[in-house]
Amino acid sequence: MQIVKTIDEVRKTVKAWKKEGLTVGLVPTMGYLHEGHKSLIERAVKENDRVVVSDFVNPTQFGPNEDFESYPRDINADAKLCESAGASIIFNPEADEMYDNALTFVDMNKITKVLCGKTRPIHFSGVCTVVSKLFNIVQPDRAYFGQKDAQQLCVIKKMVKDLNFDIEIVGCPIIRENDGLAKSSRNTYLNADERKAALCLSRSLEIGKKMIADGETDVKTIILAIKAEIGKEPLAKIDYVEMVDFNQLETLEKVQKPLLCAMAVYIGKTRLIDNFIME
Ligand code: AMP
C-alpha cells in the first residue's frame, strides 16, 4: 500500500484502475485513524475493488480559535491501519497541494447553520469544499462517512444531490469504546478525569433512547432529561443538545422518525460530539 502525496499521482492511479473496469471507494479522513475509521475502510474494501483513504487535516474546516495546529497526526500508524484494513492507497497531501491559492469554496445554507454550525460557522463550508475536491480528484463510485458526524453525513448527502455528483454516499454506524464513549481522534486530548467525565455523553443519550422506547413523545421532556444527566458532571459544559429530523435538520416537537438526537459537549477544553439516529 502506497502513501501518495500529489493529486496527479492519485488521478493516474485511479484512471488505471478504471481502465481495468475496477470500482473505487473513497474514505475521507483527517487521519490519526482508529477503529471507527477502520470500520469505514473495511466496509469500503468489501464493496469496492480498490479503496482510497484520504488523510488530510483540512485547514479550511477549522475556525480561528480551534485545534488545527494541535490536531493529532501520525501518518505511519495510519498507513499500518489502512494496510491491515485492505486499503489500496492513502492520499496524504500538503495543504498547498490541495489549495494552491484557491478562491473557490462550496457553501450551503440552512442545514449547515444549525447544530454544530452555530458554534462552528465556517466548518461545513470547509468540509463541503474539501470533500468536493476529493470527489473530483478520486472520482469514486462510493464514499463512506460515519454517523458519528451525523450532520456532516446529512450535509454531504444534500451536496451530492444538489451538485449532481455521481457518487453513492454510504453512512456507517458509530464505533464506541467498551464503556460507550464514541471513538474519536480528539479523545486523546482527555486526561484521566476528563475521560471518565466524557461518558456522560453516551450515558445521557442512552437515557433519551430509553425514554423514547418507553413511549415518551415530547421532545422537550427528553432533552431536559438528557441535559440533567450531563449537568451532573462538573467537568462537562453543554454546547447543544437537540432533536431534529434527519433530513432537513429541523427541530422536532414530537418524536417522529427519521430523527437525529445530537449533542456537542465540552469536557474541559475538548469539544466532543455524539448522537443517536432512529430511522
Ligand atoms: P475524521 O477523521 O474525524 O474527520 O473522521 C473521518 C470519518 O470517520 C468521518 O466520516 C467520521 O464520521 C468517521 N468516524 C470518526 N469516528 C467514528 C466512529 N467512532 N465511528 C464511526 N465512524 C467514525
From TrEMBL:
<feature type="binding site">
    <location>
        <position position="61"/>
    </location>
    <ligand>
        <name>(R)-pantoate</name>
    </ligand>
</feature>
<keyword id="KW-0067">ATP-binding</keyword>
<comment type="similarity">
    <text>Belongs to the pantothenate synthetase family.</text>
</comment>
<comment type="pathway">
    <text>Cofactor biosynthesis; (R)-pantothenate biosynthesis; (R)-pantothenate from (R)-pantoate and beta-alanine: step 1/1.</text>
</comment>
<keyword id="KW-0436">Ligase</keyword>
<dbReference type="InterPro" id="IPR042176">
    <property type="entry name" value="Pantoate_ligase_C"/>
</dbReference>
<feature type="binding site">
    <location>
        <begin position="146"/>
        <end position="149"/>
    </location>
    <ligand>
        <name>ATP</name>
    </ligand>
</feature>
<dbReference type="GO" id="GO:0005524">
    <property type="term" value="F:ATP binding"/>
</dbReference>
<keyword id="KW-0547">Nucleotide-binding</keyword>
<dbReference type="Pfam" id="PF02569">
    <property type="entry name" value="Pantoate_ligase"/>
</dbReference>
<dbReference type="GO" id="GO:0004592">
    <property type="term" value="F:pantoate-beta-alanine ligase activity"/>
</dbReference>
<protein>
    <recommendedName>
        <fullName>Pantothenate synthetase</fullName>
        <ecNumber>6.3.2.1</ecNumber>
    </recommendedName>
</protein>
<keyword id="KW-0566">Pantothenate biosynthesis</keyword>
<dbReference type="GO" id="GO:0015940">
    <property type="term" value="P:pantothenate biosynthetic process"/>
</dbReference>
<dbReference type="InterPro" id="IPR014729">
    <property type="entry name" value="Rossmann-like_a/b/a_fold"/>
</dbReference>
<keyword id="KW-0963">Cytoplasm</keyword>
<feature type="binding site">
    <location>
        <begin position="183"/>
        <end position="186"/>
    </location>
    <ligand>
        <name>ATP</name>
    </ligand>
</feature>
<comment type="function">
    <text>Catalyzes the condensation of pantoate with beta-alanine in an ATP-dependent reaction via a pantoyl-adenylate intermediate.</text>
</comment>
<feature type="binding site">
    <location>
        <position position="61"/>
    </location>
    <ligand>
        <name>beta-alanine</name>
    </ligand>
</feature>
<feature type="binding site">
    <location>
        <position position="175"/>
    </location>
    <ligand>
        <name>ATP</name>
    </ligand>
</feature>
<comment type="subunit">
    <text>Homodimer.</text>
</comment>
<dbReference type="InterPro" id="IPR003721">
    <property type="entry name" value="Pantoate_ligase"/>
</dbReference>
<dbReference type="GO" id="GO:0005829">
    <property type="term" value="C:cytosol"/>
</dbReference>
<feature type="binding site">
    <location>
        <begin position="30"/>
        <end position="37"/>
    </location>
    <ligand>
        <name>ATP</name>
    </ligand>
</feature>
<feature type="binding site">
    <location>
        <position position="152"/>
    </location>
    <ligand>
        <name>(R)-pantoate</name>
    </ligand>
</feature>
<feature type="active site" description="Proton donor">
    <location>
        <position position="37"/>
    </location>
</feature>
